[in-house]
Specification:
212 residues, alpha+beta, OB fold (Dihydrolipoamide Acetyltransferase, E2P), two-stranded antiparallel sheet
Length: 212
C-alpha cells in the first residue's frame, strides 16, 4: 500500500481525511445545486450567525461549512506530516496510539489556529450578507413545497441558507403542490409567512421583460 494512502487511512489522519471527503461532497453538491440553489451561499447573521464558540475560536464571519473545511484541511496537513516524519517509525503498538492521540489534539489546535488566520481576509466577502435582515436575505431564494399544497391561506416549503434547512410558512396566489419549486418574494409579517410564486413564472417574468 502506498505510504500516502496508508497514512491517510490510519489514525489519527483518517479522522481528518473523512472530514475532508465530507467537505468535498458538500461543496460539490453546493456547486451542482442538488441541495438547493442557495446551499453554498455565504449568508451569515441574525438567526444564522456563528455561535459564541466560533467567535471564541476566531472563525466567525464566514460560513460555518467553510470554517470547518479549513480546520479539517490544516488539521489533515499537520497530522499527515507528523505521521510521515515521526509516526511511521513508532510501529503499531501502544506507543504509536499514544503518539496519535497527541497528534490528534495538536492537529485540531493547529487547524483552528491556521483557519482563524485564513478567514480574516475572507470576512469582507460576507459582510454585506451579515447586515441584511433575515427577510431580505431570504427574498429571492428557491424553495420546494413541503406540504401537500400551497395556496393563499396555508402551506409550507423547504429552503436552504448557509447549509441550514429551513421550514417556512408560505402563501401563493397560484396553487402549488408538494415538490413544486417556487421563489420567495417577500415576507408577510401579519401571517409570519412568505409570499412565493412558481419558479417558472419568476424566470418567465425576467425573460419577458423588455430589453432596454
Amino acid at each position: 500500500m502506498p505510504l500516502f494512502v496508508f497514512i491517510s487511512t490510519t489514525f489519527p489522519t483518517a479522522i481528518f481525511s473523512i472530514l475532508l471527503v465530507a467537505a468535498v461532497i458538500y461543496w460539490l453538491i453546493s456547486l451542482s445545486g442538488i441541495g438547493g440553489d442557495d446551499l453554498g451561499d455565504g449568508d451569515m447573521g441574525d438567526g444564522f450567525e456563528t455561535g459564541g464558540l466560533m467567535a471564541t475560536l476566531g472563525l466567525e464571519g464566514v460560513p460555518l461549512p467553510l470554517a470547518i473545511t479549513l480546520v479539517a484541511l490544516f488539521g489533515w496537513l499537520f497530522s499527515y506530516f507528523s505521521e510521515l516524519l515521526l509516526g511511521v517509525h513508532l510501529g503499531s503498538g501502544a506507543l504509536h496510539w499514544l503518539f496519535g492521540a497527541v497528534v490528534l489534539c495538536l492537529s485540531v489546535a493547529v487547524g483552528v489556529l491556521l483557519a482563524s488566520l485564513a478567514v480574516k481576509p475572507l470576512r469582507p466577502l460576507f459582510k454585506p450578507a451579515l447586515h441584511l435582515p433575515t427577510e431580505q436575505r431570504l427574498a429571492g431564494l428557491v424553495c420546494t413545497v413541503r406540504s401537500g399544497s400551497v395556496d393563499r391561506t396555508r402551506g409550507r416549503a423547504d429552503a436552504y441558507i448557509e447549509g441550514d434547512h429551513l421550514i417556512l410558512q408560505v402563501r401563493s396566489d397560484q396553487p402549488l403542490k408538494r415538490g413544486d419549486r417556487a421563489i420567495l418574494i417577500n415576507y408577510l409579517a401579519e401571517e409570519d409567512a412568505y409570499r412565493v410564486i412558481p419558479e417558472e413564472e419568476f424566470h418567465a417574468g425576467f425573460n419577458d421583460s423588455p430589453t432596454r
